[in-house]
Structure formats: structure tokens, C-alpha cells
Amino acid sequence: MADALVDDFMRFLDTEKSASPLTQRNYLEALGAFETWRGERFAGWKDCEADEFRAYLFELMKQGFKRATIRLRFAALRSFYKFVVLRHGLANSPVALVELPKPERSLPVVLSLAQMEELLEMPKKLPLPKQSVAWIPARDTAILELFYSCGLRISELTGLEVGDVDFVSGTVRVTGKGAKERIVPVGGPAMTAIQHYRQQAQVSSGPLFVSKVRARITQQAIDQLLKKYLKYSSIPFKISPHKLRHTFATHLLDAGADLRSVQTLLGHASLSTTQIYTHVTKERLRKAYDDAHPRA
After folding, report:
1. What is the average pLDDT across 13-37?
2. Which one from 177, 182, 212, 216 is the annotated catalytic residue?
3. Which one of the listed residues 73, 139, 198, 245 is annotated catalytic?
4. Domain 113-291 sits in CATH 1.10.443.10
5. How would residue 1 be classed by pLDDT, with cut points 50, 70 and 90?
6. Could you check whether 4-88 and 113-291 share the same CATH topology?
7. Residue 258: phi, psi to the nearest 5?
């Protein structure tokens, strides 16, 4: 997209906001989608009016786009226009007053404690393929244990360095969204698994989790190893690294952890983002009541 305002905005996201590559790509695609929709009627960002964005919203809804997709596109447009107002002298944002559909409240899918424990044992149970590296099961066990112990995002886990793990304090230093750092406690089984993996793989510096060719492990590789272990488990639904994050938060709340602590552990900027897990917990309590109470 050859556009000076957009180019400046993308530099702002990258250098000043430290936005992730995925966020930058999504925002650029959202801006491009609006410009493509306007076509020849697009006269420039500063000339767009609120009614054009209302018409765009109506068109997306008419085409059956999910509310989350619509809200993501307009989040990009709002951020862009806020930037143009602050840095390029536009009087008002034409997107600011556009009323968006409320987000759909879909409850996260979580694993039961028994399912989580089964998954954690899978790398040790499966036979090692002939051409595989001997320490791969130890690495996979450490990855799964750390996901469940800390509720990390997949990008946070793949970005870990050996020096981020403090075995003395039993914590890990995590770099989250917007390059914000937080210190997260790590459970004993996860720490033991990490130590065992490092000894087996002889990993002493650099990336914590590596591939068999000693490069930093990729998000795609972690997705694949989860699919492999799921295939041989009794878990009846698909799982992803983010479902392990959901499971971490829900199990903490089930056991009585307070919402603010879980917010801090997850690295959520807003408490409202964490509150969805309280709904999951209530649903689980309701199911337990309905299944067990004779007059439910």
C-alpha cells in the first residue's frame, strides 16, 4: 500500500508501540481492506467521513463477517485515525463515533485436570522414532509443563532465553505484548522438567527451547507437537497453546485464586479480559451441581 500516512503509522507501531509482527500485519490488512472496498471512491484518509465507515460496517455485517473480525478491523482503523489526529493535524477521527456490534461472549475451552495430566505424560509414553533426537521428549515435556505452570502465550514461550529462567527464585522472566516484562512463578514439576531437558540437550545459553538443529523453536513446531500428542491421547477435542493458557487460568480460579493475581500472571492489561474465566468457572460449578445434586 503506497501511502505516506499508512507507512508512517506502521513505523509508529513498530518503533514506538513495539507492536508484534502479527498486530502490524493485521492492522495493515485492515487498512488495505477498507481502501479496497472504497475503490475509486477513495480520495484519501483525511477526506473520509463517518458515514463511509458506517456503510463499511453495514457491508461487513451483511457479508456475514464475525463480530470479532469486524471489531479487529475497526480497532485498526481507530488506532490509525488516532495517530493521524495526533501526528498529522486531522481535526477529528471519522471512526470514533461509529458504534460497533458488541463482542460475542464465547467461553474458552479448557482441559480437565485429568486430561491435562494425561497430556503432560504423553512425551514420555510415546516411542521415540528411529531418526529422532534423544532429548526431544524431555524438551516437549518441559514445554508442556511450562505452558501449564505459567499460562504463557506461545510467542512468550518461544521467545524465552536460558537466562530468563531463575532456578534460585523459581521464576521466569517473560516478555509479553508491547515488550512488557513480567516475572512469573514456575511450579516445581516444570522447573524439574526444564533442568532435565537442559541437561539432556546440553543447552547452556541462547534460546531456551531449540529444534533438533539447535535453532530457536518455532510456533509452528509447537503446534505440530501438540497435534502429535493429541492424536495419541483420549482428549476428544482439538487443543492449542492458547487452550493451555485458558486451562491454567481456569484451574487457578477453580482452586480459589483471586482475579487480580490471575490477571497479573497472564499479563492482561485489563481485568475485563481476565473476567471471562470467571464465567468458565461458574459453568463448571453449575455442571458439577447438575450432575451431582439429587434435586438439581
Report:
1. 93
2. 177
3. 245
4. yes
5. very low
6. no
7. -85, 155
Q: Which pLDDT belongs to residue 293? A: 54
Active site residue 289: no
Tell me whether residue 88 is one of the annotated catalytic residues.
no
pLDDT score at 57:
95
- Do 243 and 137 touch, CB atoms closer than 8 A? no
Check if 251 is active-site.
Answer: no
Question: 4-88: which CATH number, 3.30.160, 1.10.150, 2.40.10, 1.20.120?
Answer: 1.10.150
Instruction: Give residue-wise pLDDT tens across range 233-250.
Output: 999 988 889 899 989 988
Arithmetic mean of pLDDT, 162-167: 96
Q: Respond yes or no: is residue 130 known to be catalytic.
A: no
The question of whether 125 is a catalytic residue gets the answer no
Residue-range domain boundaries for the chain: 4-88, 113-291
State residue 210 phi and psi, 5-degree precision: -125, 160
DSSP letter for each residue of 119-187: HHHHHHHSPPPTTS-TTHHHHHHHHHHHHHHH---HHHHHT-BGGGEETTTTEEEEE-GGG-EEEEE--
Q: Which region among 63-72, 119-128, 227-236, 269-278 has the lowest average model confidence (pLDDT)? A: 269-278
